[in-house]
Amino acid sequence: MKILIVGLGSIAKKHISAIRKIDKNAVIYALRSSMSNNSEEKIQNIYSLDELSDEKLDFAIISNPTSNHFESIQQLSKLKIPLFIEKPLFSEVSDKTNELVQQIEDSGLMTYVACNLRFLDALTFIKKKLKGKRVNEVNVYCGSYLPDWRPGVDFRSVYSANKAMGGGVHIDLIHELDYVYWFFGKPQNTQSYFSNRSSLDITAFDYANYLWNYKGFSANIVLNYYRKDSKRTFEIVTGKGTYLADLLANKVYFNNELIFESEQKIIDTYESQMRFFIDNNDKKDKFNSISEANTILKLCMQD
């Protein structure tokens, strides 16, 4: 395989590691903005797409800062190769982003926006279990401690903590919104509340609460940056009983009884996700395409 990647941060390295496990001989080109950027082992730096004019690329990964996604997607879509785009899709919702999404959809270009929790064993298990079940209520909770996310780095200096940089818990933890949408589709109507009044004292939102209303039930989604004892759960109250997925432990309970567990770690989902994308990027399957991800982003940004 020959792959182009834009952006070589920590998330890009997870995707590269997944690619190496799938194809140890994969050729990876990195489009860099400056010759002062460090070189990475077994990755070929390029500084212009013209350098690849004679290469047949299999796909491109866009994993640069979210604020640069629009320009990168616009530029790389001209190559007419599948695009693997790190979440979130954009840093804003606007007429120009909607127009770009429509242009790409109309072109038939294969796109996938990376939301790796769709490949977590606990979620895939519970999704199958819910088929045919009457859902009465859904509760989602994801709380963790932002200062622990990047050891040795001042958390107030990073994108996540800064409103001016487009950060915030609602956009960082869009995974939770994504899998609720994946399970139940688009809600009939929504309400949301955001705040940044915790002891973290940051400018970006550190708390978000969404209420998504569906026919017959509602989904409540709570996200925060300030919980030191991390918790990530998905609860579905059905007519037959209550399912609870503990995403951090990769376990599922039904009426407090353990019914499923997996040794898979969340980091392992990056390989599962990449395998799916590689196996399907020539089949035009619609799975979290740019259009679907744009719909979820709109739901995320609503206030």
Automatic annotation (TrEMBL):
Organism: Chryseobacterium piscium
Domain Gfo/Idh/MocA-like oxidoreductase N-terminal: 1-113
GO molecular function list: nucleotide binding
Protein name per Swiss-Prot or TrEMBL: Gfo/Idh/MocA family oxidoreductase
Organism domain of life: Bacteria
SUPFAM superfamilies: Glyceraldehyde-3-phosphate dehydrogenase-like, C-terminal domain (SSF55347), NAD(P)-binding Rossmann-fold domains (SSF51735)
Domain named GFO/IDH/MocA-like oxidoreductase: residues: 137-243
